[in-house]
Each structure stands twice: as C-alpha cells, then as structure tokens.
Amino acid sequence: MTQEQVKVQPKSMEWKYRLIESLAPVLGFLFAMVVMMVTVQFIGESPIKALSAILTFSFSQAGIAYIVSQSIPLIIAGEANAIAFQAGVFNIGVEGQYLFGALCAGVAGAYLNLPTYIHIPVVILAGMLGGMIWILIPALLKIYKGVHEVISTIMMNQIASAVILYLVNGPFNGVRGVSQSFNLRTPYMEPTAVFPSLHNVINSVTGLFGFKFPHYVAVDLSWLIALIVVVVLWFLLFKTSLGLRIRWIGQNISASVYAGVDVKKTLLVTMLISGAIAGLVGLQEVAYISKFFTPNITRGLGFTGLAVALLARNNPLGVIASGLLFSFLSRAGYGLQMYTKVPNSLIGIISGLMILSVVVIDQILRRYARTLRRREVG
Amino acid sequence: MKKFTVGILVALLAVSLVLSGCTQPSGPTTTEPKYKIGLVFDIGGRGDHSFNDSAYNGLVRLAEEFEGYIKDDPDNVNYGTEVELKYLEPKEGGQDREQLLRTLAEEGYDLIFGIGFMFTDPMINVAKDFPDTKFAIVDGTIDGLDEQSNIVCLNFKQNEGSFLVGAIAGLKTQTNKVGFVGGMQSTLIEQFEVGYKAGAMYVNPNLREAGNILSQYIGTTGDAFKDPARGTEIASTFLNQDADVIYHASGASGAGVFQAVYDAFKNGKDVWAIGVDSDQGLVYKSSDDPEQQAMGDRIMTSMLKRVDTSVYLTGKDLMEGQWKGGYRDFGLDVDGVGYAVNDYNRSLIEDVMPQVDELKQKIINGEIVVPTNNEELQTFQLP
Amino acid sequence: MSKVDTIKERIPLIELKGITKAFPGVVANDDIHLTLYEGEIHALVGENGAGKTTLMKILYGEYRADKGEIFVRGKPVRITNPSVAVALGIGMVHQHFMLVPGLTVLENIILGSEPVKNAVLDIKSARQKIEDIMQKNAMPVDLDTYVEDLPVGLQQRVEILKLLYRGAETLVLDEPTAVLTPQETTELFKTLKALKEQGRGIIFISHKLNEVLEIADRITVIRRGRVVGEMPIEEASKEKIAEMMVGKPVVLEVENPRIEVGGHCLVLKDVVYEENGVKKLDEISFSVHAGEIYGVAGVEGNGQEELLKIISGEIYPSAGEIYITDKVVNRISPMGRRQLGIGHIPADRQAQGLFIDMPLYINVVVGWHWRKEFQKRGILDYKVMRSTASTVVKNFDVRTPSVEVPASALSGGNQQKFVVGREISFDPTLLLAAYPTRGVDVGATEFIYKQLIDEKVRGKAILLISADLEEILALSDRIGVLYRGKIIKEFRREEATPEIIGLYMLGVKEE
User: In terms of CB atoms within 10 Å, which end of chain A has fewer, N or C?
Assistant: First the structure.
C-alpha cells in the first residue's frame, strides 16, 4: 500500500454511528412504552387501553398545550445541568438553586414598586441572582478546597428547603393576619412584576396551523426566557472562546492547564452561569401561574433536569426535545389516572420506569455506537 | 444496532399482540349517565385512613342512593348507571391540583369536589373558565361567593366535634394530663386544638391548670400532614411527660401518633389515642394486619369530620335541583361532626357517653358556645 | 543454529495463521503469520499503527479476526473473549495497567479468580501460592501494600504476577518498557529471562530496537499490517530492523549544524521550588539562547516535571528568577507566558497536548486559542481554525482522513506530529520540547528531529527534556544534567559522551 492509498479511505461507517445515536432516544421511548404496557398488564388493566389513554390524552389540543407549556421549566432546568456537565461539573444543586431563585424573584416582585419595564427584568435578575448565590458556596468550596460539588450541592439543597421555609414563615410572610388562606406563601406580586401572557403572539403563529393554546395553559414570558437561554447557551458553548474553554475543562483538566486556561476562573464562571439559569426554573410558576412564592412550589425539577440534560447529551438544542419528552411522560401519567384504573401510587412508579427506560436504552445504544467507532479506529 | 432495533420492534409487536388477545371489553356503559360527579383528593389519596377515605365514602353513598358507579375503581362500586363518579389524586407536592380539576371539567363533569383547603386558588381559576360546572371545596374558604356562584365552600364546625372528644379525654384520663398533636400550623387546625382544650377543661378541673394539656404542631407546610415520624416523636414526648390520652389533627402523620401510643402501651402504660376526620379506630380494626388491629384497640374514639356527609349532601342537592353556591357549615346539628362509636370502643366509652351527649345537646341548644381560637378560649365560660 | 532447529521440531505454543482484520478504511492486519514456541521471547516490532496491538487484541479475544486461524499447542481454537484466552493460558499486560489502585497487591492478584474454600474466600492458600510464584521467579513484591503506593515498575510486576497466578503460559507484553526507568527495565528483563527459562512463551511488543536486540530470541517485523520479515536474533541488526520497519534506510545520525547563537531567550537564576518542605528544584541556573538547543538529561523523577511546569507557569518559583527574553516572569500565568511566545510540546500528548475526543480543527488552537486570528470579540472563527489545522496536517505529514476527525482517530505518531507541528507553526521564540518522540516510531522520530533542528537553524531557542540519551546527544548543542532537582553539570555537545553523562545522571559523579 502506498501512502496515497492510506489517505484515500472510504468515509468509514460514521453515518451509521450517527444514525444509531440519533435513533437512541426514539428507541428508548418505544421501549418505555413497552415497559409501561407490561407493567399495566401486571396490574390487571388493559395495556391497549392504557396506551390509547396516554396517546389521546396527550395529543389532544389541551394535552399538547400542557406538554409544551410544562416543558418550559424542564428545559431551563435541563440547560442549567447541561452547561455544568459540559464543564464536567455535576450540579445536583439545581433543585436548591431554583428554590432560592424563585423565592428571590417572588420577593422582588412583591416588595418592590417599579414600573413594569423595569420590574419584570428585576424579577428575572433576582431569580438569577438567587440561583447564583446558592451555587456560590459549592463553587468556592470546589475551587479552593477541592470539595466535590455533588456533596456540597446536595447539602445546599437541604439548606435551601429550610431557609425558604424560614424566610416565608418570617420576614417574607404574606398570609399573616389573612385568616382565609392556609397556604404558606409570600405576598402577591405587584401587577407590574407579573409576567405578561404571550398567548396572542404565540397563537397568531400556531393559529396558522390551526392550533391555539388555551388561555389556562401558561404561555408567558418564561417561554421567551427559555428560548433565549437555549440560544445563548448554544452560542456560548459552540461559538465562543469561553465556551471552548468550558468544554475543554469538562474534557480534560490537565490539557486545559497545559493550554493556559485559567481552570479555576472558568469553573467559577460556568458554575455561576449554571446557577443563574437554575434560578430561572421556578419563574413560570412564581411570576405567572401563582403570582407568589410558596414553599409548596413544584419540587424535583432540578433532578428531572439532570435526566433531561443527560438525554440531550448536554447539547443546549437537544435539551428542547428532551424537555418535551419528559413533559410528555409526565402528562402520560395523568392520562393513565384519568382513563384507567391504575392506582395513582403505581403511576408514579410507571412514570419513573419510563424515564429510566428512555435514559438507559439511550445510554446503551450510545455506548454501543462509541464501541463500534473505537473499534474502527483500532 | 440492527439487533437492538429489531429486538425492540419485535417486543413491541409481541406485547401488543399478546395483550390485545387478552383484553376484555371492560363493561362499557352504553347508556350515558345522567350526572357526572368528579372529585380530586388531597395529597395522600385513598387509603389515608382519614380525610380522603371519608370523601370516598361520600361517593360510595351517592352511588348507593342514586344508582351510580365509581369509574375505574379497584373496589368496583357499581349500583347502576345513573351517576358516574370519578376521583383523581394529585402528585406529591400537589402543584397539579388545577390541572386535575380542569381535566374533570373538560371531560364534562357536572359537579367537581376539591378535598382540602389547598384547592382554594386552583378552584377559583378553573371555576371561572367553566361557569356551567359546579364546584365544591371541602374545608376551604373562598371570598366573595353568593348563592348564584358555581362554587360552594363546605366547612365543618371542627371545634364542636373536638369539644366532644376533648370531654371524653377529660373524663377518661387517669393521670390528669392529655395531649394534642396538630399537623400544619394554621387557623384551621387551631380550631381543633381549641375545641379539644375547651372540652377537656370543661369536664375536668385538673386540666384547667397550665401545663396539663400538652400541645404541639408538626410543621408549617402541607408536608406536616404526612410526616408520621415526627408524629411519633411528638407523641412520645407527651407520653414521657405522663400524658395518657393524645388527640391528633394531623392527617397521615397521625399514624405516627398511634404508633407511639401503641409502643407505650406495649411497655406497660395504659395510654390512648384519639383519631380525627374518619373513624380511625374502626379503620385500623378492619385491617388485615394483626399489628394494625392491635393499634386500633388503643384508639379510644375519633373526632368525626363528616366529609362524607358534606360530599353526600352536596351531591344530593345537585341531583335534586337544590344546588346553592356560597358557604355551608356542617355542625353537630346536621351530624357534620361528631365522635366515633363502634363495636370495638363502645364498652370503653359507654360510661361517659351520656355525659358527652348531654354536652352535645347543650351545644346544639346554644348553651355552650365552643371557642374557635385561642383568644376566645381565654374568655370561655367554664362551669 | 542448532537451537533454532530444535525449536522448530516442537509443536508451537501459539500459532497464528493468515490473520486478517480490516477496519473501515484500513486493513490493520493482512494475512499475518506468527509462531511462538515454549521458552522463547518473540519480539513484535513495527511503527505505531502498523497493526501490532490489533494482532495481540485478536489473540486475546478482544477483537475477532475476519480471516485466519489460531492454534494453541497445535489445536485450533476460537478465542471469542478474554476469558477464553485466559483459560487457554494466554495472558496480556496492557500498556495501561488494569489494576485497582485502592486494593492491595494480594487483592489485585486474586481479583477475578478468587480461591474459595467452603464458600469462604481462602486468602491463606492464595497467599501461599503467590509467594511460591514470587520465589520461583525472583520477583518479590510486598503483598499487603496498596497498588497506588507502588512505583510503576512494581505495578507492572503485579500485572505479570496476576497472569502467572492464573496459570498463563503465554505472556503478551505491549510496550512494557515505555513507562519504565532504565533500572526498572533491567529488572523486567531479568524477570522475563527467568520466565523464559521455565518454558513460558513471551510476545514482546516494542519499537525500542536496543531493547529488542537485548532480550528477544526471534523478531517479527510488521509494516502496514503485513509481516515484512522474521529472523532469529543472530541475524538481526539495528539498521536492518529499522530499515524493515520504515521501508527505507534511516539516517540515525541526524545532520545538526551548530549556528551562531543570539541573545538569551530563557534564563533561570537560582530557581528554587519547594513542595511540602521538599526542594523539588534546587537553585537551578541555566540559560537558553536563540539558535540553540539546550538538552536536559536525567533519569526521570529528578525534577523534570517541575522544571517544565515552572517555565510554562503552572507553578511559581519559591525563590530565584525566571526571565523570558529579558522579562521577569516569576508570577505570570501560563497564558501570559504563552503570549510572550512560548511553544510547548508536552510530556504526554494524550493527557495534556490534545483533547482526544475533539476534532483536529479544535485541537489546533489548544494553547493558542487566544490568538487574534482565531477569535473576534470572543467569538471563534472556525474557518481560520480549519484552514490552520489543514496547514499543520499538510506541512507536518499528519496522516488523517480530514481535520474533522477527533484526535483519537490518529495513531500515536501522527498525534505527536500534529502537536509538534502546532507548536512550531505559531512561530514561538522559545520552544519547550518534553520527550518529543516518546512512543513514536522511527520514521516519525526522524521527522520530528528534523523539524526541531530546522527551528533552531531559524533562530529559535529550544529547551529539550528527554530520558533518551541518544536523543539528547543527537539534538542538543549544550547539555545540562539534572540530578535531584539540580543541574549538576553542563556540557557542550562536543565534550559529551553517553558514558560520562550516564555517570552524572546516576549521581556517581558530582561537581
């Protein structure tokens, strides 16, 4: 063989590996449906009925609207995890960061008196700031003391739960003296701070395809926020020098040091960005749906965000699809409850199994593709 | 990769084939029911031995008397096809209450119950969008309603019921020390506390001395209603301080109180618990688990908050054309509250029942005005 | 000659016949025949990427051959996975050890084949068995030490013990000396000879010709997936093997003209570096001028790592001064120093020099991403990056399908050519070259030598750090010997001989 022959090689089987990788989530989804049907069969309910319940319930007008709307916090939580993962940081603390961020946003919305065009940005910034404050301690501990972020962020989650409870019971209590409401919460936000609805804008677009979002589904400023987060993160990671450095430290710290990257600074910046995004997760609920902060705010989005990011391979664009999928899985649970006699306690387990199946099948197939690729390289 | 794809597709196919083979037609109701009544439980759902179970019993009573059936019910409650009854449960955390109410409304249910005060805001939002659908909130208060509203607030005079069980505790205590474990700190649970204290003090002068009625709350969020561990902890402290009757108003956390009492009993103490909302002693005694049955033996009685009565009466009103929006309080007069007497505890409290029923009559007559909060308790007229 | 004849009459321990294995785009093994007899060390030599490792992975069951047969003691076998290989008495020591650092030596050895007596782990008999093996082969290790506390040489010994414990008759060692010090290499060779005496067969993969000539009984040379020659050691010579490997005669004596030197590019003045109270660098002083290569010779672990880090800026000196082109840089960050014009060929290209899963057009800016041509206001210019990568690939003969493939898709030698090419391309005034040809085949080595010398002639200052004395002697204009954190002696190239430098390296002679 001459040198020329070596250079002119067929393009290899790269397309095949790409195909496997892109099919992985789809196959994972199909597998999840199988798992769901088998489980339902064990319970003694008809799997076909369950499947059709899920599908009709999810792909009705309200179903689609809910899935899209409720994917927004999942997407934002996914992005917060994704950027951290890109830098090799396991931010389990998204949970605590969004709780605290949501509290800050709720407080900024209720206690400040500003014109709308300033108040809303202030609420958003307060959420981001809250998330950043909550990741700052783990970030500094990691950078200067080598404390692993998994441990410190988990602890910060616990602290967040306690702190918000204290703050809402104490200084920021909005129900003291109001006898009729028992829901512990901050005061209602000022009307100037409440997120505007985007129904008209969105519906004027989707209306062209004959689809309207019902008014009771949250179509609000948080959609735009999520979109901006996605685009900005994608641009940051793949188009900028900072993004390149973030991805470098995620891949190989010692090579990054060799390349002259200030690893500590880059880690700090990345973690702060992750925290800031995490602080936006609860805004849809606080600034649009409830219009106040309560410790009873939806929990667990941070952890679901981990799975969302994992499935999206930490790609900011992929997080959209992955967030929609997880939102669908959650909607599927309601379908089961509404139209089948699967007990509610089992629906939680089935949802969990479906999520697990999607992620596991996806990971198995991706590893399989990676092995094939390695083998090709020799 | 081919293997994977083919494998999954084959699995899908096989599963759907096999399963479609054994799908029985699940008794489709060919005739449309006249009324459809939906209900969303509070967190915890069925099997909480308390609040939600009581609501479920209301549905069963409606099915019985109006020839209806409960849809997708594991117990197959089915007396006919006149009324369709359906219940849903929120997720842990319960942020989906609104979504569940809305789902039922969209499915065309005529009357939709929300069990628990946490439904306040969700119900306001959904009721606005479905003006032709009726809504009822149990234990919640929504401002600004009138008879024309499509919402009714169903409340209980829990202070009256608590007064009666407080009297039982005051009469039965040997140590002259009793306890109260509350769930989430709120004005609602305060009514239980205050009524109980008033009843106990009314019948037992020893309990009027400070420090002889122990009282503590589990927490400040909805989670306080499902924290049995904390319930055990608090009840044990009380028992160690020689309290021998403990009343709880803490939802599912009460299981922990019963556990603590049962454990103390096994250690040779003659101590008792008082349940709340539904007849918890009976529920425990009906269990298959001998341990639970033994626990049921230590439940002296329960303060009955007749959620079942409220659900039943409200459903009945609707179907008899008597629906009214606004507010409705169920007191001792309509048996909206009470105390539990069953085959197991009858012999135990029989000796004090005449006295307690006398008190009940006095309350109905207005001779005793049971306080509703701590301030009123201060000025409560003791004999 | 008679020795060879007697061997041939016996049934070979291992026989590979017509092994062919193709990966998309590359035929890694093409009709390879190889025989290994009892009591023989058979060296498998070839350039990086010639197909040695692939062949051994087929033998060990990690890959399946497309064609060909394997015989063990004359019987055809199908080796579908490594446990089959182990059952057939074949054991392999990988380049990267497969040990669990947090377990003791004993635990590591028995891991995976734990002796069980009455359902209980029988540590006692295992220990006895291992001690017997150590005794017999004169390869002692403290069985209760944790593997992470052992030096590399002993870790390798543990790997071999593990194979012997499982009854391996055939041992495959993949570049075993790449990670060893000269002393450790000597120890390893003693062990291998002892194993050979017991009748075991050893396949020894290497491209260090000196070692091959020292240890092997027979040599098989592979080039581009094919066997190009097999010979008994008596017929082999360094030149002959080298020629077979690269397919053309190698000029092992490189043309290295001395040119007139310019000013100081790098000056170290009494530089001390202390870590936990230990002086890793002890009052080091030397300077490198434009137009010269300054070689630092020394046994590894005498401060080379710290010296590199202190010049590149990863660590700061405890005392003394470092000047780069007359500027004190003691407290300047690595980035700041790179901006002063330092190029840096790192000691470990895979762990440091490249992001192995990223494409070449990204790897081409590693360490140079700050340069203006690659970004405008913080936004990367991929077009320029791609064209720069293509230029490096072309100018430095990097064999790759395109600049889009990840660095991991390149063979070791091509990765190193890429790194060297990158560091030279940006026209640094000072080039740090650490072990620039480690693990690189003869052809690529020659190419890299030529590049370094060309740079010197162009007036660059080059600091060369290497463990390979021949390399130091071939390239350097001046040589400093690093011993226990000190430059204990400086030579001009003309004054130096391997023997005298060796004495200083071992600390036998001191100034």
Answer: N
Same domain, B252 and B347: yes
Nearest CA in chain A to B189: A182
Could you list the mean pLDDT of each consecutive 10-residue stretch along chain C, which spans 511 residues? 52 90 69 91 80 87 88 90 89 85 89 79 87 85 87 86 90 83 83 90 84 90 85 85 65 73 89 85 91 86 87 91 89 90 87 90 93 91 94 89 83 86 92 84 83 91 85 89 88 83 71 56
Nearest residue of chain C to residue A236 (CA atoms): C379
For residue B283, give the nearest of B293, B291, B272, B269 by alpha carbon. B293
Start-to-end Cα distance in chain B = 85
Structural domain total, chain A: 1
Q: Which of B1, B74, B95 is nearest residue A343 as measured by Cβ atoms?
A: B74
Residue range of the domain that includes B194: 158-306+334-378
Q: Are residues B177 and B113 in the same domain?
A: no
Same domain, B113 and B246: no
Instruction: Determine, yes or no, domain membership for B96.
Output: yes
| A342 in any annotated domain | no
pLDDT at A15 over 80: no
Nearest CA in chain B to A61: B106
**Chain A: closest CA distance from residue C379 (Å):** 4
Do residues B202 and B145 both lie within one domain? no
What is the dotted CATH code of the domain comprising C2-246? 3.40.50.300
Last residue of a domain, one of B122, B141, B156: B156
Q: For CATH 3.40.50.300, list the domain ranges present in chain C.
A: 2-246, 262-341+430-511
Mutate to test the interface with B, among A182, A281, A285, A342 (most CBs of B within 10 A): A182
Does residue C489 sit in helix, strand or coil?
strand
Fold of C262-341+430-511: Rossmann fold (3.40.50)
Q: How many domains does chain B have?
A: 2
Q: Does A277 fall in a domain? A: yes
Q: How many CB atoms lie within 10 A of CB C238?
A: 13
- Cβ atoms within 10 Å, residue B171: 18
The residue segments making up the domain with residue A295 are: 72-207+217-312
Contact B215, B180 (CB under 8 A): yes
Of A250, A254, A249, A257, residue with least CA distance to C312: A257
| Cα distances (angstroms) measured from residue A330 to each of A52, A71, A76, B125 | 16, 10, 16, 22
ipTM above 0.85, yes or no: no
- Does the residue B314 lie in any domain? no
**Looking at residue B106, which CATH number applies to its domain?**
3.40.50.2300
Quote the tokens at residue A5.
Answer: 């022959």
* pTM, full prediction: 0.75
**Interchain contact B/A (3 or more Cβ pairs less than 8 Å):** yes
What residues in chain C have their Cβ under 8 A from chain A's Cβ atoms?
A: 23-28, 49, 53-54, 63, 224, 312-314, 333-335, 337-338, 344, 346, 351-358, 362, 365-367, 369-370, 374-375, 378-380, 399, 401, 408-409
Q: From the CA of A368, how many Å to the nearest CA of chain C?
A: 15
CB interface of A with C, residues 225-254, below 8 Å: 239-242, 244-245, 247-248, 251-252, 254
Q: Is residue A5 within 8 angstroms of chain C, CB to CB? A: no
Q: How many other CB atoms are found less than 10 A from the CB of residue C474?
A: 20
Q: Is residue A200 part of a domain?
A: yes
Last residue of a domain, one of B156, B187, B209: B156
Is A31 inside any structural domain?
no
